[in-house]
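Why should sequence recovery work at all? Because a backbone constrains its sequence more than one might expect. Tight turns favour small or flexible residues, buried strands favour hydrophobic ones, and helices have their own preferences. The token representation captures these environments compactly. In the example below, the structure is given first.
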């Protein structure tokens, strides 16, 4: 006969058997990671295909780095050219060319006269024609057909964009949700902040030239940045200049032996400042949104958080 004490429950752990280690669960790959990766790949392929087709057909692109053709070709614009043909050039045409002398570089100026030996050129914002007599026909590299303001800055920042996007995808795929806030923060810092700090495309101003008489100075200033500016001299009236444009400022002659100074500051409305602040806070906003969303998914049991021994 058996008693109650002789019955051993199947749920009672064996004291001689070591406790089992907790099994680590694997966090499922987030669907939006796959979607963003696919979208990024498609966009990248399309852009590369368009650029390759343009280059194969003889087109070229140049990033504008000087303000001589503002506002038609502002600093930071991407200028697209097609192969040169004499029939396409007339008075007013903007051509890309290499000067007949000086260091090898590409200029893009407007044709103001046509001669038997070449073209006479001038920058729209320059006070006079170019210093060389003519641009020989053989020095013309193409005819400007399109200007994309601001896109040149994007092309310059492309390495930062690519690194930041890949970093965002990797971090989103492998970083646990508790550290997920750093994924968008780090990637957005690279994608947005670093190019802005390195290239400084937002606030830029340049003095092209100035003339002076006994009592007056005429200075031509250009807004070469992406934000509207107000140019303020030490004496005289301020000038509000939109991005990519220039203006002539008339200043009183400073005392003998002193230079005149002009400062440039951002000229934004209240809504403009709000938009700029929101742009700067974008990394933080995205980080908070991602963290809150992942936390809510865990509370609802839709997120499997890795457990480690």
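From this structural description, the recovered sequence reads:
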């Amino acid at each position: 006969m058996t008693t109650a004490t002789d019955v051993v429950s199947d749920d009672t752990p064996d004291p001689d058997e070591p406790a089992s280690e907790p099994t680590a669960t694997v966090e499922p790959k987030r669907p939006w990671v796959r979607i963003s990766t696919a979208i990024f790949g498609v966009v990248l392929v399309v852009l590369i295909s368009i650029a390759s087709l343009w280059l194969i057909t003889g087109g070229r692109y140049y990033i504008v780095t000087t303000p001589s053709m503002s506002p038609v070709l502002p600093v930071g614009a991407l200028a697209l050219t097609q192969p040169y043909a004499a029939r396409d050039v007339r008075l007013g045409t903007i051509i890309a060319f290499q000067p007949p002398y000086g260091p090898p570089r590409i200029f893009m100026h407007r044709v103001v006269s046509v001669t038997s030996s070449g073209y006479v050129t001038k920058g729209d914002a320059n006070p006079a024609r170019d210093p060389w007599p003519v641009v020989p026909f053989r020095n013309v590299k193409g005819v400007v057909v399109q200007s994309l303001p601001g896109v040149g800055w994007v092309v310059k920042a492309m390495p930062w964009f690519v690194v930041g996007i890949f970093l965002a995808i990797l971090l989103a795929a492998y970083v646990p949700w508790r550290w997920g806030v750093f994924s968008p923060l780090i990637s957005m810092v690279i994608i947005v902040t670093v190019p802005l700090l390195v290239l400084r495309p937002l606030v830029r101003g340049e003095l092209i030239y100035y003339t002076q008489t006994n009592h007056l100075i005429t200075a031509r200033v250009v807004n070469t940045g992406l934000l509207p500016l107000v140019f303020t001299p030490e004496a005289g009236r301020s000038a509000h200049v939109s991005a990519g444009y220039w203006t002539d400022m008339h200043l009183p002659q400073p005392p003998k032996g002193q230079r005149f100074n002009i400062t440039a500051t951002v000229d934004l409305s209240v809504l403009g400042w709000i938009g700029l602040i929101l742009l700067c806070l974008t990394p933080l906003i995205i980080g908070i949104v991602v963290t809150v969303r992942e936390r809510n998914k865990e509370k609802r049991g839709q997120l499997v958080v890795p457990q480690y021994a």
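A few observations help interpret the result. The CA atoms of residues 65 and 179 lie 41 Å apart.
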